[in-house]
Amino acid sequence: MKSLSPLACLAALLLAACGHTNNLAKYNISGKSAIYRTTMAADAASALTIIEPPNDNTAIGIATTIGSVIVGSEAQKKLERALNPDSLAQSVGLGMRQATSDYLNIRAVNDWTENPDLIIETTLTDCKLLSSSIGLAIKVRGDSRVIERGTGRLIWENSESHVVPLSETYLAGLAPRPVASGASIFNAIQLLNLSSEEIRKVVNSAATEAGREIGETLRQDVADLHK
Questions:
Q1: Can you give the C-alpha Rg of the chain in angstroms?
Q2: Between the CA of residue 26 and those of 19, 30, 49, 100, 185, what are the distances in Å?
Q3: DSSP labels for 40-59?
Q4: Quick one: what percent of the chain has pLDDT higher than 70?
Q5: Closest listed residue to residue 14, CA positions, set 191, 123, 140, 165
Q6: What is the mean pLDDT of residues 110-138?
Q7: Contact, 3 vs 78, CB < 8 A?
Q8: What is the full DSSP assignment across 113-131?
Q9: Number of Cβ atoms within 10 Å of the Cβ of 191
Q10: 100 in Cβ contact with 217 (< 8 Å)
C-alpha cells in the first residue's frame, strides 16, 4: 500500500466533517437576483498561522525551518502585514459567486435598494499554512449559504475544508526562485522571501481555488436536480 506524504497526512487530520444542507428542490431560484456578502468569522485567525505536521521526523519546528529568513514572531508579523482578512474572505467567496452564476443563472446586485431575492453569504472560518518537508499548502475552511431574503429560510449551505498544495499548482511559479527540477517544491522559506504583495497574491489565489471547490458542491447538487 502506498504511504501518504507528511503533507497529505496533515491534510487528512485537519479536514473536518462537512456540513451540508440542500433544499434546492423546494425553491425555484434559477434566474433570481442576489446580494453577496463575504465575512471572516470572529474566532478565525486574523492572519495565517504556519504549522508543522505531527509525527514527521523531517519537521524540526517552524522557528528552525524559517530561522534563516525571519525568526519566530517576525515571520508572523510579516504575514500579518501582507494579508488582509477581508480580501481572503472575498477570494473564497469568488468561487460561490461564480458557481451560482454559472449553474443557477443568479444575477448579482450591488445594493439593497435593488430588492434582491436572495442573500448569498460566504464566511472564511479558518485559514492555515501547512508546512512539511515536501512543500507548502494552504488549508481553508469556509461556509457558504443561500438564504431566501423574504422569509429568511435556508435554501442551501455547505461548510467544508479544502487543502490547496502550493507545490502542485501554478502558484509555485510565483516564487522568485522556483526549484528547477520536477516537483517545484514551494516551502515556507520561499514564501517568506517574497514581497508582501507577492505573498498576498499567492495566498489569495489559493483561497480562490478553495472557493471553487466549495462551488463545485453546488454544481453537483444542481446536476442532481436534473437527473
A1: 19
A2: 19, 12, 41, 17, 47
A3: E-TTS-SS-EEEPPTT-TT-
A4: 65
A5: 140
A6: 85
A7: no
A8: GG--SEEEEEEEEEEEEEE
A9: 27
A10: no
Q: What is the pLDDT of residue 181?
A: 34
pLDDT at position 214 is 85
Q: Which residue has the cell 475552511?
A: 141
What is the Cα–Cα distance from 222 to 220, expressed in whole angstroms?
Answer: 5
Return d(Cα 218, Cα 143) in angstroms, integer: 12
CA distance 120 to 36: 5
Instruction: Provide the grid cell at 214.
Output: 466549495
- For residues 128, 19, 89, 49, the Cα torsion angle rounded to the nearest 10 degrees is -10
> pLDDT class for 200, splitting at 50, 70, 90?
confident
pTM of the model: 0.73
Query: pLDDT by residue (tens digit) across 172-192?
Result: 555 444 433 334 456 677 777
Which residues does residue 129 pair with via DSSP β-bridges, in sequence order? 50, 138
The most confident of 43-47, 170-174, 178-182, 200-204, by mean pLDDT? 200-204
CB 120 within 8 A of CB 146: yes
Degrees to nearest 5, angle at CA 35 with 81 and 143: 60
The reported pLDDT for the residue numbered 177 is: 44
